[in-house]
Amino acid sequence: MSECCCGEKDIYLPELATITRMQHMNETELFLHLELDSGKELGHMPGQFVEVSVAGIGEAPISNTSSPTKSGFDLVVRKIGRVTNAIHAMKEGDKLGIRGPLGHGYPLEDMKGKDLVFICGGIGLVPQRSLINYVLDKPEDFGKVAILFGAASFEQRLYQDQLARWAQNDKVQLLETIDKPHPEWSGNVGVVTTIMNQIDIDLANAISLICGPPIMYKFVIMSLEQANVSNENIFVNLERRMKCGVGKCGHCQINHHYACQSGPVFRYSDLSDIPEAI
Amino acid sequence: MSIKKISKEELSQLVSTLIASGDRVEGVQAKDDKFAFGPLTSADDLRLDYDVTLLSPRKYVLPPVESLMTFEVGGRYQSEYDTEKLTLIGVHPYDMIALNQIDQVFSQDEVDNHYTTRRKNMTLIACDVVTPSENVFASSMGTATVSEGYDILLTDIGDAYVADAPTEKGQALLCNAADATAEDLAKRQAVQERNQSDLNRHPLNCKIEDLPQLLEKAYDHPVWEEKAASCFSCGSCNQVCPTCYCFNVQDDVSWDLKSGTRSRAWDGCLLENFANVAGDHNFRKKRNDRFRHRLYRKGKYVPEKLGIGTACVGCGRCITACVPGIANPVDIYNTLLNDIKL
Amino acid sequence: MSKPRVAIFDFACCEGCQLQIVNLEEEILDLLGVVDVVEWREAMSEQSEAYDIAIIEGSITRPEDEERIKDIRSKASILIALGACASIGGVNKLKNNFDLNDVKKCVYGDAADMPHLETAMTKAVDEVVKVDFKIQGCPVEHDELTYVLRSLLIGKTPEIPDYPVCVECKAKGNICRWEYSEQCLGPITRAGCGARCPSANNRCFGCRGYVDNPNVDAAKDVFEKYGLTVEDLKSRMVLFGSKQGPTL
Amino acid sequence: MSKNIDINVKHLTRVEGHGNIVVNATNGTVEKVEWQVPEAPRFFEAMIRGRKYDDIQTIVSRICGICSISHSLVATKAVEDALGLEVTEQTDMIRLLMHFSEQLQSHVLHVGYLVAPDLFGAKSVVPLVSAAPDAVLTIIKAHRVANKWSELIAGRITHPVTLIPGGMSQVPSEKQLKDLAGSLKDIVADLVTIVEVVLSVADKLPAFERDTEYVSLGNMNPAQYTFYHGDIVTTDLDEGTPVNQWESVANEYVVAQSTAKWGKWHRKSYAVGALARYNNNAEHLSPLAKVVEGKFGLTKGCCNPFMNSVAQLVESAHVVEKALEIIDKLLTQGIKQEKVDVKPKAGKGYAAVEAPRGILFHSYEFDDNGICLGGNLCIPTNQNHANIQHDFEKYVPEFMDQGEDALRQGLEMLVRSYDPCVSCSTHMLNVEFVK
Ligand SMILES: Cc1cc2nc3c(=O)[nH]c(=O)nc-3n(C[C@H](O)[C@H](O)[C@H](O)COP(=O)(O)OP(=O)(O)OC[C@H]3O[C@@H](n4cnc5c(N)ncnc54)[C@H](O)[C@@H]3O)c2cc1C
Ligand code: SF4
Ligand code: SF4
Ligand code: SF4
Hints:
Bound molecules: flavin-adenine dinucleotide, iron/sulfur cluster
Strand order of the largest sheet of chain A: 10-9-8-7-11-12-15
Radius of gyration of chain A: 19 Å
Strand order of the largest sheet of chain B: 3-2-6-7-8-9-1-10
Number of strands of chain B: 14
Largest sheet of chain B: 8 strands, mixed
Structural class of chain B: alpha+beta
Oligomer: heterotetramer
Structural class of chain A: alpha/beta
Largest interface: C-D, 61 and 66 residues
CATH class of the largest domain in chain A: Alpha Beta
Order of helices and strands of chain A: EEEEEHEHEHEHEEEHEEEHE
Helix content of chain B: 25-40%
Radius of gyration of chain B: 21 Å
Helix content of chain A: 10-25%
Number of helices of chain A: 6
Order of helices and strands of chain B: EHEEHEEEHHEHEEHEHHHHEEEEHHH
Distance between the termini of chain A: 43 Å
Number of strands of chain A: 15
Number of domains of chain B: 2
Shape of chain A: globular
Number of helices of chain B: 13
CATH superfamily of the largest domain in chain A: Nucleotide-binding domain of ferredoxin-NADP reductase (FNR) module
């Protein structure tokens, strides 16, 4: 074994980043703001992700949730396994290994001037936030924005501060729903498809962006198709198991696509003939 | 450079010299009643008349387990590279083509420099097949002969080898050899032509270019369910395949609990948890989903990704390795061909 | 932070798994650098009531053992089953294939009724109390044992293979035992041993228990293909824990 | 000095398995002295019924993790005897190598890890690490070499995987044998160091003697110090007894204080183990073993049970030297993988080998298809139980004046010196003193 090689960059080698701010949003979700120790910006596009390393534990792919218009970058990590547990046990000032930005973000050029409809289930809001904030920071480039957010239960209504801030923006129509009724909740009850008819935007001419738990996609897409949205105007964000994040390890393959390379953001028309996608 | 000829004795001397140099030399040897690549300690052990090796030479470019980096808990990651020089002797054409494919995977888009470092330090001596194995179907896959990737290609013409050395590394080894005569080259061509038709224990009933199109229409065919019913999800078909390259990555710490190693190891898409994510959602939960995935990778996905003919090189290893006897790719493609019109 | 306190206990077994802890040799010193071993009857005289991690070897074969394991469980925050006997019952479970009175008579003859020879159906530890982690094998493997312990010490759930022995066997470049018609259980047995038995030209006996979802139907097909019966398969599968895993 | 004694050691530590010691004396009169074995009985003889001949060694190996090689070897021999299988000279030599590795492994473990703490007045080997680091590291090294040796030949340190009826599934390569020879030559010096360490505290071994019968393998032609071949011999008889008559030697019986069975032959009890082997075969020891013997002044006829640990050190030197001879021979004649072809047939077979802690007997019966109809196993520790009990009965009155603590410690050491493998016998040690 040796430490030298032929000069090319090691695509598996994380660089260090420091957690400069963190906030436990609830028992399972943790917000982190990170800055690269190199002082450089990550340089990501909305929709891209990073591989986060905790040395000794492993790596996990995590979406960038901040707009590249801000310095540093934000992650929201759900506590669900080894790496994510370990991240939850950290404190401000601790260091994480970061590889990225990785993957294919949203095709911003194709969205210019268009109305955007974000349909998010639970933690699916996290990757979308990077684009929402980007769009709101560049209002002249995009049309109106609708944000539909569905939570499984009242307790799981995350990101309330963020949602409240968006709601204040004139460009934004915010619609919320929870799956099960709750005494303190007077808003809409039902899965996210039940509020789609309340959107003020003409769906057929807008771009719809979906991110949420695996079972959500099929139903949302059915509703969009009923509203005459063409598959070219639907974008989905797909999660798969990933080990390398750079198209080598094979885990994230969806039929012939590698989610880490062609995705995680896909134009639905590129997937419609792909049985394993949705 | 012109094509050379080298007698069997001369080759044996060449191998002895390589071994004596102290550099790592590995080649095909007998293992019980089979053959395997392994460290060569004597030129006499080299068996270029073998039929097929148990494991493919992929184990040299992607070892079963390989350290990628060391780390200190809390930060500092340090890459690790394998820079040992290696001469590998006896790679069959189908395995050479498989290596060429993996080369492409690991050097396209983002370059995997762990892979390329190891690969650059290798000298590859290939050889045309002398004895067809019981399950080979390289002729069907267009992989019975090979024209690139090696440093030397040896063809057994009876009393000697014709040796083609397209690279400098290869030429350096053959600098003392005489040129092959027209007669030698004719003999070589005869061997290669024979192999192009005779390495075919399981003939495929279509052209390989037709496979993607066939598979396009075969996603819901009952054959997947039928075969996969007796699949152990043991991944043997993946492990022995020269073109499989998927891997897993794991961290382990040392006893000080402060430093450790991140390493990668062979994985396989047939294994139950290959596409499982946290929260226990498995994107290919059913045996037939995983079983189908492998055959699609070989016949459609990887060929499309790499722009090549096929990602199954017809070595037949998976046929031998599969205990329930269901892994034969030709068997499945031919079954589909019976039912599906191209 | 004080070092976690570890206690090692044995029930009905051959103590071969504890022996593997002794066999860590120099690494024992490393281990002792990061934990306090507070009780370990085979190697030391101290006994303790307070521990964080309890490592259990052996299967539960008597009513009084059930009480003892429940007591240990109540004191430990992490309980690890060490080896086949604790994890899946081990060869001790072969006893369950017979009537218990017959078993006693067979070994002790006329004296079979003496009270201290009382015995019950053999159970794996998790048939009596909750087990947090299992380290499989008869005996456990050095590398897996140390990996699991180190992982737990850094607060990580160890990644234990849930794939068959064939994976490791093939990676080793072995010739499959089925090529010689030997009844290898590798295709359904949990990996982690580096395919020890097939690598020594022997068949896999299944000492590590089965993968979570073994394809027993496929095993039946294979046994039939080789002219064997379901009874043959069953006889192989019960060797290291008759009640464990799928029923045939 | 206390005239009332109440010793009640439950689950004696630093032994393999579970055993209790109960001593009860009032006003200087011993009322109860008992060596109890409360190990959970495991019923191997019952469990092997219905299993095929080629599963037997795999099952019975699990009787004991420490002597799994001996159990596997004796079972394989007994199966071969029943099926009428002959093994080749090469197989025989490789098995001997395997067996020797276990003697070394077990002896170093017993003397180094289990007995040494007593001699140094420590509760375990752990405190010795800081008190005598060099000695401990030397012991660890010897143990590691022995384990690697077992792993090489048996495929695994504990519970061999290379033994099959009729032969060996795998044999070591010449290179592996050469490497093994290298490391064995290497540890000779370490063995000498260990001997010196034990010698420095040998005065802590109590001067206690009780004449008893010593039983082991022996009677070989040409004569040698045997662990694997030969007849059953005893210090009470001049001629050997064939192995297939072992049941008339062991005369097993069941007692209330033990889940393990007891045995007796010419006297009310007999002893097996390193000291028994030594007392029957000492003149055939290797040169280095004779040196060790001389250092401790050990002589044939010794009847101090505490000297068993010393005999183990003597044997450790012996097996290393003998193994080197075998490796030489194997390398000279060449080693190759041999094919084994077994046809099951009905029959009954008997075998004996010397486990590190004493002679071990197995016998099995099979039907035409090689299905086991039943078996009988007699484990060394069982054969020692009665002898330990009788040692206790003599030891307690002799050493009662030392007081309860010293007495307890002496009794614990006495049991440990037999290297009991109570998990074998089923398991062994607890001392109770009742007032
Ligand atoms: C493109 C992408 C973006 C993601 N963005 C976020 C995010 O912003 N916030 C968030 O909380 N989670 C996100 N996830 C999911 C997150 O990666 C997993 O929850 C995480 O990998 C679980 O790792 P673990 O070690 O904690 O869990 P374990 O269950 O212990 O995971 C073990 C191994 O399984 C693999 N694995 C398990 N689950 C997943 C998974 N869902 N995706 C990929 N690999 C997995 C990993 O290789 C991991 O090393 C994203 C996943 C992908 C693919
Ligand atoms: S799929 Fe089978 S035949 Fe094809 S290359 Fe892989 S192992 Fe060889
Ligand atoms: S080798 Fe056969 S049984 Fe094993 S995973 Fe492949 S197809 Fe399934
Ligand atoms: S020998 Fe056993 S473990 Fe190895 S591949 Fe064959 S069936 Fe699997």
